[in-house]
Design brief:
12 helices, four-stranded antiparallel sheet, 51% helix
Length: 405
């Protein structure tokens, strides 16, 4: 097909062609970056925490009568929880994965180190912690009972050893075996790594910002946290979580009713933690669909206008022997050229926009293939959108079109 007549027609209607190309470029830039954000949020919200989430619940316990025998009361609570029918294990901690907040520490290799080797979530737990969470120990050993010490708000005794996540070990000691090596966390004394677990995700502190760069970095210290506000993590037998949770609440209130309990299953914790991400996914998807629909209607409207303006030209071409297929191909080729120009500008715009967002908002770097996928969608959309007005143009009888001119 001759391209010269198409270029000549677009020059006569350059404002409309430029408008559609610009709309396609903007749609493509937003679509490519939105796809990147959606993929990022889906990947984040689907990350395994490392826990046996289906059978674990957490109980935030707050004593309201300010007792002076906190350690004894905590031990009594834990003994009661572990003795409940259907309970696999339980322990007390300072925080839990996917919690909205938490303890974040720096990890250093030397005392005088200026820049930290890594950031990490800092969990506290006793010899029951690994079993309660269902963590997979891939190297080293668990804490022993005599290594676990009480920690209070005013007293932080030295830790005897750390259990760290595989991600943290790889970050601090890349390409080397981290087991047995000392690190500095939360104090000025080196403490050896005695165990490595396969995965232990951190809390949701600034979930889409800083902590996203170290979400898998975690360290577990052998502390039994003694405080009026404590967190009990309990693991139930498979399928018994709801029943055990109710029994655990009843048991703790029977021991001491002067307390406030807030209990949630880890499945509820995960749903709450990623509710914002799921909302953003729906929002971005809706905006993308709306933009594509608006762009498609813009193409239909402009092409229909051009068909009305070229009735005489179409009629003459039909009278000279042009087939309906030739008329349809003419408008599809014209639209493809406009869409291709818009897609080329849109790819450059999408990459530039992503680089700016990476620099300004810590967004992940877009895979350039997403811009190519967006360009393909835009080109395909243009061809579908132009099809109806092109078919209308091809159906105009030659004589009627000539009289209408």
């Amino acid at each position: 097909m001759e391209v010269r007549p198409i270029l000549s027609a677009m020059r006569r209607n350059k404002f409309g062609a430029l408008l559609i190309a610009t709309q396609m470029a903007v749609t493509l830039a937003f679509l490519a970056n939105a796809l990147t954000l959606v993929e990022q949020r889906i990947a984040w919200s689907g990350r395994p925490s490392g826990l046996d989430e289906g059978d674990i619940f957490v109980m935030q316990n707050e004593l309201v009568d300010h007792p002076n025998d906190l350690a004894a009361r905590l031990t009594r609570d834990l003994d009661a929880l572990r003795a409940l029918h259907g309970v696999v294990d339980a322990y007390v901690t300072n925080m839990y994965p996917l919690e909205g907040g938490g303890w974040i520490e720096t990890v250093n290799l030397t005392r005088e180190q200026k820049s930290p080797s890594a950031f990490t979530a800092h969990y506290m737990g006793d010899e029951h912690a690994l079993n309660t969470m269902g963590l997979k120990l891939i190297a080293g050993r668990n804490f022993s009972a005599d290594e676990v010490v009480n920690r209070t708000e005013t007293d932080t005794p030295p830790a005897s050893g750390f259990i760290v996540s595989k991600a943290l070990a790889a970050k601090v000691f890349p390409g080397a075996n981290a087991l047995g090596k000392p690190i500095f966390v939360d104090n000025d004394k080196p403490v050896p790594i005695i165990g490595i677990v396969d995965r232990l995700q951190g809390p949701m502190t600034v979930a889409t910002g800083l902590s996203s760069t170290f979400a898998e970095n975690s360290v577990l210290t052998p502390y039994r946290l003694i405080d009026e506000r404590s967190i009990y993590m309990v693991r139930a037998q498979p399928g018994q979580g709801d029943a055990v949770l109710k029994a655990a609440e009843a048991k703790l209130f029977a021991i001491d009713e002067n307390r406030i309990l807030r209990s949630r299953s880890m499945q509820q914790v995960r749903a709450d933690a990623y509710r914002g991400d799921h909302g953003l996914i729906v929002l971005l998807t809706s905006i993308c669909v709306a933009l594509l629909i608006v762009t498609a209607f813009g193409i239909v409207g402009l092409t229909s206008y051009w068909v009305a303006q070229r009735r005489r030209q179409i009629g003459i071409r039909r009278a000279l022997g042009a087939t309906r297929q030739a008329i349809v191909r003419y408008f599809q080729t014209e639209n493809f050229m406009i869409a291709a120009a818009g897609a080329a500008v849109g790819i450059a715009f999408a990459i530039a926009l992503n680089l700016w967002m990476v620099h300004s908002f810590e967004m992940v770097r877009m895979d350039n293939s997403r811009a190519l996928v967006g360009a393909f969608i835009i080109l395909l959309l243009g061809q579908f959108a132009v099809l109806w007005p092109a078919l209308r143009a091809a159906s105009i009888p030659p004589a009627l079109a000539t009289r209408g001119g």
